[in-house]
Amino acid sequence: MRTTTTEVRVRYSETDQMGLVYNSHLLVYFEIGRVEYMRELGTPYADLEARGFLLPVVEAHCRYTGQARYDDLLEIVTWVDRLRPTRIDFRHQVRRKADSAPVAEGHIVLACVDRTMHPRRLPAEIREGVEVVKGE
Amino acid sequence: MRTTTTEVRVRYSETDQMGLVYNSHLLVYFEIGRVEYMRELGTPYADLEARGFLLPVVEAHCRYTGQARYDDLLEIVTWVDRLRPTRIDFRHQVRRKADSAPVAEGHIVLACVDRTMHPRRLPAEIREGVEVVKGE
Amino acid sequence: MRTTTTEVRVRYSETDQMGLVYNSHLLVYFEIGRVEYMRELGTPYADLEARGFLLPVVEAHCRYTGQARYDDLLEIVTWVDRLRPTRIDFRHQVRRKADSAPVAEGHIVLACVDRTMHPRRLPAEIREGVEVVKGE
Amino acid sequence: MRTTTTEVRVRYSETDQMGLVYNSHLLVYFEIGRVEYMRELGTPYADLEARGFLLPVVEAHCRYTGQARYDDLLEIVTWVDRLRPTRIDFRHQVRRKADSAPVAEGHIVLACVDRTMHPRRLPAEIREGVEVVKGE
Fold first, then answer.
1. pTM across the whole model
2. Across the interface, do B71 and D28 touch by the CB < 8 Å criterion?
3. What class does CATH assign to A3-129?
C-alpha cells in the first residue's frame, strides 16, 4: 500500500486563544492518519497491540506550514518512507480540504517493542504489505 | 483529613479561541486536587493502583461559576463529602488565587474496582483516614 | 429539529493507563454532538460566533454508564430538552456503535453571551428551529 | 539569562493505555518550560501577547529518549540556541527528577508575528535579555 488520506474536523477543544489549532494536536492528527493507514493495510493497530506488538513514538518532527482553525475539515495524507526491522518511519501532510491550503508536515518514527518495552521485529504483514515511498 | 488546597497554573494549551479555559480541563484540575488530597492522606493514587485498587470516575458534575484565563494561578480546594464501601464522593472548588474569584465547583463520584472492573471495598486507609465534610 | 446522531472514533491519545477513555474527553464528545446538531439545524456554531453569539458551557453533568476503549466507534445522540431566552440545555447519550452498549449520558447547559461575556438572547433561528424534547 | 529549570508532574490524563505519557504532551511540557523561561527573563508571555506580539510554533522536533509515567515529577531544562530578528529557537531537555533519567529532548522554533499573523521583530527585551547557548 502506498498512501492513505483521512479526514478530521478541527474541534473547538483543539483551538487556543490565538484562534488556531494548538501545536501539539498536530501530533494527534498524524496518529489518526497512521491508524487509518494501518487499518487499510489490514493490520489495525488495536489488533497489533492485542498480539503484543507496541509501537511507541521515538521521534516526532512537525513543520507548521499554514494555519488550521476551528471547524476546518482537514485531510491527512500518510505514507511510509523507511522501514527497518524494528522501526517504521511515517510521513504526513495535513491540508485544508476546501482549498488544499497546507497546514503541516510531519515525520514520525515508531519503534516496535514487546510489552516489556524491548525491541521486537515488526510483524510480517507490515514488513510485506507496506510499500515504501521515497522522496517527497 | 479534611481539605487540601492545590495550585495549578493555566496552560496555553488549555485555552480555547474564546480566550477562556476550555470546559473539559476543569475535570483535569479536579483530578489534580484529588491526587494531592490522596497524597496528603498518605495513600498516593499511584500506590493504590499498584495494589490493584482502581478508582474510575462514574459521575462528574461541574458548575462554571467564573472565568479562568491563560497563565492564571488557580487554587483547587478538595474534600470528601460522602464515603460508601465502594464509592467516594469528592467536592472541588476552583478559584483564582490573586483575588479569590470563583472559577468552578465540582462533584466527582469515584467507584472502587479491581483490575477486572468489579466493585471492591475501598482500602482501610481511605475509609479510616478520610474525614467526611458535610454541608455547603 | 429533534435529535442528531454523530459518530466519533476513540483516539489513542484519549485513553489512559486504565485502558479506558479518560473521563474529561466525554465532554469533548458531547461538544462534537452539539456542533453537528447546530450544523444540521442550519446554524453552524462557527457562523454564530462570527456574528457575535458565544455559547460558553455554564454547567456540565456526565454519568459514565459504561466503558469506551481505544478504536471503539461511538455514537453520540444529541437533543435539546430546555430552551430559555439566554440558555440552552443539551442532552447527550453516547453508546458503542457495534453493540449499542451504553458509555455515558450528559447534560450540558450553555449560556448565550456577546463578546464582552454579557447575556444575549439566543438567535431567532435557534429559538425557532429547535424542537424541545422532554423526558428521555 | 542562560537556562531555566521547571518542574511538572505527570497527570493521569496525560497517560495512555501503553502506561506512558502520550507523545503529544511533551510539546505541552516544552511550552511550560518556555513560559517559565520568559517569566524569569522579565517578559511573561501573557504580557507580550497583550502588547501584540504573538509567538506561534512554526517547527517542533522531539526525540523521546526515555519513558515518563503517571505521577513522575519531571524537570524541564530550557534555553535558547538561536535568535533571529523574527524567530527564536528553544531547546528543551526533560528528565525524571528522582534519578535524572532522560525522557525527551526538544527543539522548538517560534515565529514572532503581529495580530494579523505578519512577521514582527521580537521585542527588545528578548533580543537583549536572552543569552544564546550554543552546542549542547
1. 0.97
2. no
3. alpha beta
